[in-house]
């Protein structure tokens, strides 16, 4: 066994339609999910006993004990490992940091032990872990367990912005008044250029945006600031927030907007990213 390094990309919900609620309280979703070229990094090494180190610019406040999703994912394999988690994504931010870290850990351990079969218990790590294991554009339905690749989308240039407020996912779902909303159309358009695809995305929704803004009004400020940037074609929240994204037709426009926003709001986390 040797050292394995895996990138854990930010997950972005380009759309998030809440279409119902199960008896156990979990919500039914219809979401178009893509992944960014910004994310956390996981390094896994064989060890005598389990050890987890959390480092990096966004490590503060992230659990370092057995509750970290990285530790919980590693536990599914029953093999002692030393894991270094380098946090670059804000936590509790609607971009699946913990879920993507868990998925990356599963991929790293599968590689280390040379067995690509998924261990039992993956779904219990969180609703988003399945889609994060795919690491490519996907349509996610059910409560997150029904994931299908969604090929043919154009690469999108984006800014991700987070104002630094933690938004606990259960609170936002609870605050959603109408749980029965229309799904996306049966077919998601394929083969479109970025501009036309963004126009289509604008006709879709994130149903959690309103309840998240009601709880944390600063999210409205983030959406307004993103929408005001030159060349921004669409501003929307990801997941249950508070991270929001703006989409641009060119990489240059996204990069210029990210620099301007980072300068105007130094207390926010702001990153230019390519989504695919
Ligand atoms: C909303 C989404 C959209 O992608 O993203 P995030 O905002 O977390 O990034 C996900 O569905 C979140 O996935 P994840 O964060 O893994 O959720 P879990 O840990 O399984 O669940 C946290 C809590 O969210 C609520 N929950 C989650 C998923 C779902 N389909 N219905 C729910 O009602 C439940 O209250 C649950 O107890
Ligand atoms: N590896 C991890 N990275 C970030 N948060 C984690 C991790 N493991 C467990 N957590 C806990 O999970 C909670 C949700 O974090 P995260 O998965 O980043 O948010 P979200 O579900 O909004 O995308 C955090 O408040 C944190 O306490």
From TrEMBL:
Underlying gene: ispE
Protein's organism: Aliiroseovarius pelagivivens
EC top class, as a word: transferase
Binding site for ATP: 90-100
Domain GHMP kinase N-terminal, chain residue ranges per copy: 68-130
Residues at the catalytic site: 11, 128
Associated pathway: Isoprenoid biosynthesis; isopentenyl diphosphate biosynthesis via DXP pathway; isopentenyl diphosphate from 1-deoxy-D-xylulose 5-phosphate: step 3/6
InterPro entries reported for this sequence: GHMP_kinase_C_dom, GHMP_kinase_C_sf, GHMP_kinase_N_dom, IspE, Ribosomal_Su5_D2-typ_SF, Ribsml_uS5_D2-typ_fold_subgr
Gene Ontology annotations of biological process type: isopentenyl diphosphate biosynthetic process, methylerythritol 4-phosphate pathway; terpenoid biosynthetic process
Protein name listed in UniProt: 4-diphosphocytidyl-2-C-methyl-D-erythritol kinase
